[in-house]
Amino acid sequence: MNKTKKIVLWISLGLASAAFAAAGLAKLAGVEQMHMSFATMGLPAWFGYFIGAAELAGAVGLWLRRTSIYASAGLFSIMLGAMYFHVVYDTAANAVPALVLALLLINIFVKRRGQSHVSAD
């Protein structure tokens, strides 16, 4: 991987992990605004805490070579849910941050795809 691609990867990792760590911590702290979307969709309160824990774990997992593709795939699925929420229950324009994060996660997945194998040693 050339230097420019490495820089883009590191920026993607930094932005995505910071966003998911902040969102995950806010959900785990019980910030009401972070849980309102789950209530709007009729989901139980514990689901917001589950997503928060998944976001926080994913933020850490993005940095580990062996787990990076799995973390990016899991977080991508959460972003699909976020985009669905905004398009169906909110204004579509509010789905843009989730779309941007999804694009960062695709970049991370593609760049780290060949680095996640577990050796048999």
UniProtKB/TrEMBL annotation:
<keyword id="KW-0732">Signal</keyword>
<feature type="transmembrane region" description="Helical">
    <location>
        <begin position="92"/>
        <end position="110"/>
    </location>
</feature>
<dbReference type="InterPro" id="IPR032808">
    <property type="entry name" value="DoxX"/>
</dbReference>
<keyword id="KW-1133">Transmembrane helix</keyword>
<feature type="signal peptide">
    <location>
        <begin position="1"/>
        <end position="21"/>
    </location>
</feature>
<dbReference type="Pfam" id="PF13564">
    <property type="entry name" value="DoxX_2"/>
</dbReference>
<feature type="transmembrane region" description="Helical">
    <location>
        <begin position="45"/>
        <end position="64"/>
    </location>
</feature>
<keyword id="KW-0812">Transmembrane</keyword>
<keyword id="KW-0472">Membrane</keyword>
<dbReference type="GO" id="GO:0016020">
    <property type="term" value="C:membrane"/>
</dbReference>
<protein>
    <submittedName>
        <fullName>DoxX family protein</fullName>
    </submittedName>
</protein>
<feature type="transmembrane region" description="Helical">
    <location>
        <begin position="69"/>
        <end position="86"/>
    </location>
</feature>
